[in-house]
Amino acid sequence: MSRKAPAVEGATPFNRALVVEDDGLIAMTIEQALLDAGCAEVRLSASTVDAMDVLRAWHPDVVVLDVHLSDRNDGWAIAELLRELGPSRPQIIFSTGAPDAIPPHVAELGSVLEKPYQADALIALLRQPAKSGLLSRIKNALQ
């Protein structure tokens, strides 16, 4: 499922977002917040399998990723696969009620929002510069 909004120039640092969330109400709330913030296109996926199908054909700027999905209890596996895209990977926001369940090496791949959270907290986080991986941060610190 995909919804598009009229592009609002300069409104957001992201134009395309994938929301991986198995709770329909939460998914639609996140989708509307992203569209209201100026995101040009938002796609929704309710499962790991569907998210992987979307990612094979479409490259979002940001992925809002529920950690515990109905088909798998390790939704962060998607983030691990996205890591393989290197520096061109999308910004990752983990959306979870159990942030401690995310392995530390995976949490390094993005930012974590603990449910329940307000939509404006998500948008504020997305407007911050994307976190880089541990190796990139070490390299930058040494330069």
Keywords:
alpha/beta, 6 strands, Rossmann fold, about 140 residues, six-stranded mixed beta sheet
Q: pLDDT average, as an integer?
A: 83
CATH topology, which one?
Rossmann fold
Unreliable residue stretches: 5-11, 135-143
Spatial separation of the terminal alpha carbons: 44 Å
Largest sheet: 6 strands, mixed
Q: What's the count of strands?
A: 6
Strand content: 15-25%
CATH class division? Alpha Beta
CATH architecture: 3-Layer(aba) Sandwich
Tertiary shape: globular
Q: Going across the major beta sheet, what is the strand order?
A: 1-3-2-4-5-6
Structural class: alpha/beta
| Rg (CA only) | 14 Å
What is the string of SSEs from the N terminus onward? EEHEHEHEHEHH
Helical percent range? 25-40%
The fourth-level CATH homologous superfamily is Response regulator
Number of helices: 6
Number of domains: 1
Write the layout of secondary structure elements.
Elements (H helix, E strand, L loop, with lengths): L1 E3 L11 E5 L3 H13 L4 E5 L2 H10 L4 E5 L9 H8 L7 E6 L7 H4 L3 E4 L4 H9 L6 H9 L1
Parallel strand pairs: 2-3, 2-4, 4-5, 5-6
Antiparallel strand pairs: 1-3
Helix pairs in contact: 1-5
Describe this structure in words.
Helices cover 37% and strands 20% of the residues. β5, α4 and β6 form a beta-alpha-beta unit. It is globular and about 30 Å long. It contains six helices and six strands; from the N terminus they run ββαβαβαβαβαα. A six-stranded mixed beta sheet has the order 1-3-2-4-5-6, with helices on both faces.
